[in-house]
Amino acid sequence: MKVKILLAAVFSALICTQMVAQGTQRETFPEGSYSPVTNVNRNGYPRVLSDNSVMFRVNAPHAQKVQIDLCGTKYDMTKGEGGAWQVTTKPQVPGFHYYFLTIDDVSVADPASQTFYGCGRWSSAIEVKEAGTDDFEVHDVARGEVRTVYYYSKVDEAWRPLMIYTPAGYNESKQDYPVVYIQHGGGEDHRGWMEQGRTAQIMDNLIAAGKAVPMIVVSANSNVHARNGGFGGGYSWQGMQSFRNELIDNVIPFVEKNYRVRQDRKSRAMCGLSMGGGQSFYIGLRSPEVFANVGVFSTGMFGGIQGASDFDLEKEVPGMLSDVKAFNKNLDVFFISCGEQDPRIEYTRNIVKKMRDGGVEVRFNSYPGDHEWQVWRKSLHEFAQYLFK
């Protein structure tokens, strides 16, 4: 009975939250603030202020304690007249940030925000604008399509989803296209790159400007639980086997059967962020017969996360250093990136130096930001311009 009462109280509080958080036409907002595109109601809260701090307002008159959990930092809200709680955060770096409401120790998504699958659950999010990132927005250019399709997984023994971007003109043309297989991070799934990552907007704008060749982008859910044991994550060659089998034996054959794609290694790329960056490193670099292009974004396997230790390049990718000439010949593009405020950055720079000192031909770039989507959008934006040329 106590559980039912608590849930009813939380639900009631959230309904009130939505009503006030969305605001009204008569609401007066701080000068210079704006409603992020992630808001459900563009005339409501949260508001991004001129210094990139974020003002939240929540109506929960019966709550005893309300917090905003923004990227793991919790802000206590202050209760005002009429039961409206308010707080302003410290300035945020530009980009996409997950957040939650915590009402009397119950963490929930904010109904005033759009929801995204991230952090292993449905999450609220706020988008802080950044100058110079127009290629991440929708423009008046020829646009491609994003489709959700299903294939049968012999690894998972179930039907599983793919999200597939096809460039403008795909439906009318008869040509075959190169393909990028792009992987999400831990706590996310196949929707991440197409929704949070803005893959379609990035590709549409690059292709329209002639900066990237028309290509197909395939986003698979790498959270694979094999029936005989094993999971699609893990920072080891063994830990990658379930997803490697899924990708090479199920996903790629499905795409090549159902879409007009080039079926040679030089016309395939694999890239990913964080966990997906580790998958791309191991699967992409150790499968040169499948992929000639590999992008590794913000992986933690080089260091900077719990469980990461000294990384032996030759052990993890045999031949990388002992037969570097053959390794380089197998790759058209090898690209690594990381955010400059990411705890992984120095480890990444060090491993890139080791590669280059050993003769490995690797491109590297870093961008302002932590372990978050703005860095990964920029990574895809750069990587795509190198491919299939």
Keywords:
alpha/beta, disordered N terminus, 389 residues, globular, 6-stranded antiparallel β-sheet, 9 helices
Describe the protein in words.
The protein is α/β, with parallel strands linked by helices and 389 residues long. Helices cover 26% and strands 25% of the residues. The protein contains nine helices and 18 strands. It has helices spanning 2-22, 191-195, 199-208, 241-258, 275-285, 313-316, 324-330, 345-357, 373-386, and strands at residues 47-48, 54-59, 66-70, 73-76, 78-79, 84-88, 95-103, 106-108, 115-118, 121-128, 145-153, 158-166, 179-183, 216-220, 268-273, 293-297, 333-339, 363-367. The chain has an eight-stranded mixed β-sheet, sandwiched between helices. Strands 3, 4, 7, 8, 9 and 10 form a six-stranded antiparallel β-sheet that branches. 44% of the residues are buried. Mean pLDDT is 90; it is low at 1-25 and 228-233.
